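Entry 12.
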Amino acid sequence: MVNIIPTPLSEGARQAVKRLQAAGFNALWAGGCVRDLLMNRVPKDFDIATSAVPDQVERLFPGAVMVGKSFGVVRVKIQHHEYEVATFRKDQTYRDGRHPEGVVFTDEQTDAQRRDFTVNALFLDPLAGTVRDYVGGQADLAARLIRAVGRADDRFAEDHLRMLRAVRFAATLDFKLDPATTDAIRRHAPQIGKVSAERIQQELTRILLEAPQPGAAIELLQAVGLLPVIMPEISALRGQEQPPQFHPEGDVWTHTIMMLNAMRQPDLRLAYAVLLHDVGKPGTAKFVENRIRFDCHAGVGAAMAEEILKRLRLPNDDIKAIVFCIGNHMRFMDVRRMRKATLCRMVGAPTFATELELHRLDCAASHGDITNHAFLVEFQAARRAEPVLPRPWISGHDIMSLDIPSGPEIGRWKQRVYDAQLEGLVENREAALAWLRREIAAARR
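Predicted 3D structure (tokens):
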């Protein structure tokens, strides 16, 4: 018997099963929700599998929406929650490495055999509280193992994305990959390149954000041969030596893996900034004055990161922010020598929180010196009572009134007087105007 803690989401799913069973159909919870319940985790959603065909489901649930009638999938709504109700099915031939040409409606035992991994192929009758296991999924849950249902080669030939999903489940659940499943991924790894960039990115993003050790997950992607196909630029970090006085931890790969593993509840921008922050190092490495140098690697890495992230179809706003963080991550070494105006602009940037955490992780996973991080935290705290970037006292119209013609010179004077404001050289708008008149007069002499 499975102990199901009632929630509004689970109660709606239970009602759906109850209605189907009362009408004489077989109906069960299926897949990830069953796995999560058996692991004492709260499911994020509930999928229902049934012997009822779509037209029968639609008649039982007024307002139901057909989302894949040919595949037997109907979306129903109960008490403000939506659930997918799918007819037990057997997939026909896969031709594109992603979708079957069609399906045949069948029974629960056959339906279990067409699913990806044993831990995702379990059924649960929520009314009786009993599990139905036709593939050894409960044993694999107990062993903390991700194993393909049936022949792993067949499952990955049907749907190439399942290889990435195998790594994601292993990484996010903290499970191991079954050896036969691992070997099959290695054999089929080149086929992952046929999967759409959007689907690859979705799986990779979930790995980076949900895995307790994202760095270990990236190492697993490398070990099974998937990383060299989807992100060869990251594989290239392996073996790239670094100067030991700054990077006692080892090569760029080791440094990056350590940073990924040390992330605390990362968001998408931080995760990809960490993954890609040193991607420019292999291409800029040179030996100068008895040490390895990576001149301009931040700029080179930013350009490479932009290309990679566009390839993965990330949103443009996220790409812009991540690329900015990568391109500027080396400026943190100079913060204690920066002018106050420069620091204010830096701290006031919308990307600063991500940049600051990237810097902390970078230092913690290398030389361990986080004094610049502490300096910036203190600077930020000291200015918390006032806007880090206050409204400028002087406008472009003010500058034009001083006989400065419209054009680039307006922008240059505007920045200079705003820097004076940030530096505390002027106390108010009147003082700023007086300062501006003096500086313009001096420039005209």
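Annotation: The chain has four domains: 8-140, 144-230, 231-382, 396-444. The two ends are 91 Å apart (CA to CA).
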